[in-house]
Every structure is written in C-alpha cells, then in structure tokens.
Amino acid sequence: MRDEQRASTTLPSISLQLYSMRNLGSLARQVEAAVTAGYRLVEPLEHHLNEEERLEDLLREYSISAPTAHISLPALKARRSQIVDDCLRCGIRELFVHIPQEIAVETMAYWTQIGTDLGAISAAMQSEGIALGFHNSSSGFKLLVNGQYGFEVLFNAASGSPLIWQADIAWLHHAGVEPRDWLRRFSKVLTSAHIKDRAADSQKSAEDGWANVGAGIMVWPSLWRAAVQYGARTLVIEHDNPPDPIGFAKESLSYVRRFY
User: Fold this and answer.
1) How far apart are CA 26 and CA 39, in angstroms?
2) Which of 9, 14, 79, 148 sits a CA distance of 20 to 30 A from 85?
C-alpha cells in the first residue's frame, strides 16, 4: 500500500549533471550548452558552489534552476553554514553527499559512521531549509559479515533523521544488484535519481564503460517507471565521460522524453 501511495501522476523534473559537461570549460560554457541542449534544470557540483555568485548569475541569466547539487562530506563538515547559504542563494534545496568509490570501506564500522554523521547533519540542515541526502556509487552493495549491505547499514544508522536518497541507478546495476528492488525497498527516502547508461562490453573502452542514455545495455523504460513510481521527482541525466558532451546531452534528453 505504501508503494502505491508513493506513485503519482505528477511528471518528474529532468535535470543535467554538470559533471558531464566539464570538458567544455568554464561554468558559463557548461550552463550555456545545457540550455542549448534543451534543459531547464542543472545539477552543480561542490566547486560550482565555490563560485556561487557566478552560478546564481548564470541561473538567472538563462532562466533555469538548480534544485539539487553534490557536495563532499569533508567540505560539508568543514563549512556547512557557508554551503547552506550558497545553496539557498542559488535555489538549491536538496544537497547530496557522494562518497567516491576509492574512499569507501566495506565494513560495518565505516557505514555506521557515515550514516550517523549524515543523519545528524541532515537533522541540523532541515531547519536551515536544505534537505541532505546520500548519493550512492556501487560501493555499499557488498554483503558484510553481518549479512547486511553497507547501504542498509548507513540508512539504519540514520534512522529517525530526515536523510534522503538520490539513487544512481547505473551504479546499482554495476554493483550487480537489482535496481528496482532497492528503489522499492527504500522508496520512503528516495527523492531523486541519476539516469545514465552502461556501455556494451565491446564499447566499454571508448567512454569509460558508459553510454548515452538509451544507447547502452540498461532497460530504461522499466527503470524510469520504477524510479518515478517509488518517489524520484528530480531525474538527473549523466554520463561520466562523454566524448561529445553536447551530443550526449541532446540525445539522452530526446530519449527520455519518450517516457512523458
């Protein structure tokens, strides 16, 4: 019943992760390219918040918005107050912590600490007008000695807090788990999702294993429906290393518009 209640006829918003456009150069060039490709929403990164005045000006100039952004946990701990101010200034209301693959440690203690830290910070930030969330990679999806996954341990440790989740569905697929199962199980905290595609084995070397959305091996019609059904309201298109960023952005947007 709860899963059915999460379903909505409201169409999700489509955004573009600016990490995908980094090779174009300046923030201005990235934002201009996103708008040219047809996007009205973008997702900035931590270093974009370091130039919040420029980001705010560009969002206003192009009449677009940035409802979500990414931040590192060390930066959030070191200068939370300034980051909150920057987010509010730029209209960002959901901030997601991404833990790089090479940093994560597959132990109970590690994921418990991450969950405890994020839960406490999310509670503090809620009163400041920002929702804090976790953005997964493929780490956290190996069984630990207690029979749980690190991802489960993290959200158990944050239980009772307002911590939310931005699901990176391609990384779930990469981890070897069934994305739809995790979207359903954690629908209570799911608010956003990254939409990207994995390349076929014969094409992996060209784009670091990724592909334009709809051109890879993932079955996006059903994954898209599951993400929306279980609560994702901002769907962020991404490619970690597109050889043609503007072409990727246009083609991927054209593909996902089929689901509207």
Assistant:
1) 18
2) 14
Q: Cα angle vertex 162, ends 160, 164, to 5°?
A: 120
pLDDT per position in the chain (260 positions), as tens?
Answer: 344 444 455 789 999 999 999 999 999 999 999 999 999 999 999 999 999 999 999 999 999 999 999 999 999 999 999 999 999 999 999 999 999 989 999 999 999 999 999 999 999 999 999 999 999 999 999 999 999 999 999 999 999 999 999 999 999 999 999 999 999 999 999 999 999 999 987 666 667 899 999 999 999 999 999 999 999 999 999 999 999 999 999 999 999 999 87
Residue found by looking up tokens 């493929």 in the block = 138
| Helix or strand run (H / E) with residue 69 | strand 68-71
H runs (alpha helix) in 127-231: 150-157, 169-175, 179-185, 220-229
Q: How many CB atoms lie within 10 A of CB 74?
A: 11
How far apart, in Å, do the first and last CA atoms of the chain sit?
25
| CA pair distance 34, 41, nearest whole angstrom | 8
The DSSP call for residue 126 is: H
- DSSP state for residue 200 in the 8-state scheme: P
Rounded CA separation 167/185 (Å): 12
Structure tokens at 93: 């209301």
CA distances for 158 relative to 80, 97, 134, angstroms = 18, 14, 11
| pTM of the entire predicted model | 0.95
